[in-house]
Write a structure and sequence with these properties.
111 residues, mainly alpha, Four Helix Bundle (Hemerythrin (Met), subunit A)
């Protein structure tokens, strides 16, 4: 059976040491998003708001919400596990997108 058709395996969440590192990354990423959003909102606070700045501020708000959800998953002990299929999200994916809630396969399905 091709690997793409096999059911994802469920494994234990990542080790606590990794979770602490990713929590730190998420906190830093959140602070950066907040700074960037404040700048985008300042840029859009004119008589004629800049649509690019408004769009950027909205995108950053979504990122902040995703980061907050990831931090809540850490508290709940579910960080690093796909919210859709319960498969372990590879550390490589979390390195690129620490607030990822789904594995790559489930992310593709939800698009």
């Amino acid at each position: 059976m091709p690997a793409a058709l096999t059911a994802p395996t469920t494994a234990a969440p990542m080790a606590p040491v990794d979770v602490r590192r990713f929590r730190s990354l998420l906190v830093e990423l959140r602070a950066d998003c907040l700074r960037q959003r404040a700048l985008a909102l300042a840029e859009s606070a004119t008589a004629l708001p800049d649509p690019v700045a408004v769009s950027r501020a909205a995108h950053l708000l979504r990122s902040i919400e995703e980061i907050d959800a990831a931090l809540l998953r850490i508290v709940a002990g579910a960080y690093g596990t796909c919210v859709r299929c319960d498969a372990v999200i590879p550390a490589e994916r979390l390195e690129l997108r620490p607030h990822a809630a789904r594995c790559v396969a489930c992310e593709e399905v939800t698009r």
